[in-house]
Amino acid sequence: MAAKVIVKDLVKRYGSVEAVRGVSFEVNDGEIFGLLGPNGAGKTSTVECVIGLRDPDGGSINVCGADAIAQPALVKQKIGAQLQATALQDKITPREALKLFGSFYQRHATPESLIERFALAEKADSKYDTLSGGQKQRLALALAFVNDPEVLFLDEPTTGLDPQSRRELHASIRRMREDGRTVLLTTHYIEEAHQLCDRIAVIDHGKVIAIGNPDELIANSRSRPRISLKSTRHVEKQTLLSLPGVTGVHENGDCVEIHTSTTSQTLIDLVKTLDAQGNELLDLHVQKPSLEDVFIELTGSRLRE
Hints:
Helix content is 33%, strand content 30%. By secondary structure, the protein is α/β, with parallel strands linked by helices. α3 crosses α4 (111-117).
């Protein structure tokens, strides 16, 4: 597939702080691509450089076949963006905002079509300051769509939303891909990246440290499955470490987490050991490695919020 966004060796500094340190990635036509990383990793600075809100200190950016640094006005006609915070006048209505923003572009969708698409009919003529958080986010998405863009940039689109609003926004993002659009989103929610993205770039301290399909990143990691165990009586840590394949044991209250390289054999011997001790099994889960395990493996720490 042709790449809609090509970023090579991007650098952005703020004084002595190098927020983006040689970031490179490509976003293919028609995919949802995620930048996954903690707050402060350089995700927002990267997006702001790509969409022309900040001037990069190095590197190149190509969007929809145009040089985004040399031709920012042309690129802005072809893209839509939802930033972390959308600031509108308190008394403007969604219908008025969509009409106003549409007037900035050569090509634009009608306010009515966007109001219907993003389920804003009930609030179309209400003042902005009366909208709920989820409604404001849907309006922000509608504004990003106002010029019928080829590529959508969504910066932490679900931060601060309740679970229902988050699910609704996820559905809207998936529909963008179904409509053939390209989406680049940033997030620090690992589950969100796994659910939505065709590919992700893991970014930390201003650098991309891994790129790939979420399932492929997990499959290629060195992380092992783990067994979570609860029993009526405490099992000695040394007893669990002596089981075949066990590489580590972590106790968390009444739950024990066992890391193993041979899940089936460890489970068989674990049940035999508990039975021999007359110890009753209360709860047992086998957990496959997750994107968070990949992140910990790559960075040495859990994802910071």
